[in-house]
Structures are given as C-alpha cells and as structure tokens.
C-alpha cells in the first residue's frame, strides 16, 4: 500500500498532541495510541487525528472534562456510538482537529480497537473495504449514520474472523 502525503503530518501532529496531553496527565496515562483514519499510511484523505488515551482508572476519566475545558479543549458529545461511555475531547493543532478518546485501563475494547487497526492496516482487502466506506461518506453517498452502521459491520466481521465478536 502506498503512503499518502498527509500521513507524515498526521503522525507529527499525533506526537505533538500526545506530548501536550502527557504534559497535563503524565502520572495518570498508561498508554497512548494513534487510531482512526489518519493512522493509516495509505489513507489518501485529510481526517481528524484520533488518539486513544488509556488512563489508570475510570475515576480519572470522569475527572477530565472540567480540567480539559479549562485548558481550552472542547468536550465532544456526539462522536461515535461505540465510544458513548468514553470521554472525548477535541483540540486544534494548527489547522487540524485532534480527538482524544479517554478510556480506563482494563477495557476490553482497547484490544478490539487496536486489533481492527492492525487488520485494516495489514490486510489489503479489509483496507479497500474501509477506503470504500470512507469514499462513500465523503462523496455523500452515505449519511453519517449509514456510514457508522456499515463501519460497525465491517469491524464486526474483522473481529469475528479473529474470534472476537464485539463491535468496534
């Protein structure tokens, strides 16, 4: 798969944004992962940068909104139904939006998210299916809701093939 020009910039923004977040919460953060469309080297579209942040406990996740709003971040209430239990915040880094998805340590879904990313990144047929969904969304052939349903079905199929039946 061919690397796109936006990937290097997204990767740089991921590092910059992650370091800034770690500066605020370094004692609470266990892991940071670049996920979502901008994390695929072959994705040829400019997307928000999604970062999965794993914190030590659920209590720490619950305490984030007030602190982050004071730092200038926006709390995102409608992101993806899959992340309805997580705290999502958005910040701007130059002309790019960065979404931080905060999840407590021990959540099964972390592994599902990373497994799906690995599958899409390493399996060209899965990648092509994902690209086609993104294209249909960007070309307005699918509504956001239709896109989410089809993306969930794709991820369900990926996880089923890997022996895990939860949906990302």
UniProtKB/TrEMBL annotation:
InterPro entries: GrpB/CoaE, NT_sf. It holds the Pfam family GrpB. This is GrpB family protein. SUPFAM superfamilies: Nucleotidyltransferase. It comes from the Bacteria.
């Amino acid at each position: 798969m061919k690397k796109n020009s936006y990937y290097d910039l997204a990767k740089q923004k991921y590092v910059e944004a992650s370091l800034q977040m770690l500066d605020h919460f370094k004692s609470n953060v266990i892991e940071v992962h670049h996920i979502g469309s901008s994390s695929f080297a072959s994705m040829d579209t400019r997307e928000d940068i999604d970062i999965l942040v794993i914190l030590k406990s659920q209590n720490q996740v619950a305490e984030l909104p007030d602190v982050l709003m004071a730092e200038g971040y926006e709390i995102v209430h409608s992101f993806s139904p899959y992340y309805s239990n997580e705290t999502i915040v958005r910040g701007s880094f130059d002309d790019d939006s960065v979404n931080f998805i905060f999840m407590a340590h021990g959540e099964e879904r972390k592994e599902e998210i990373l497994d799906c990313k690995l599958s899409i990144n390493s399996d060209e047929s899965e990648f092509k299916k994902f690209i086609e969904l993104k294209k249909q969304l960007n070309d307005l052939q699918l509504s956001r809701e239709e896109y989410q349903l089809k993306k969930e079905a794709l991820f369900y199929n990926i996880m089923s093939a890997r022996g895990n039946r939860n949906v990302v």
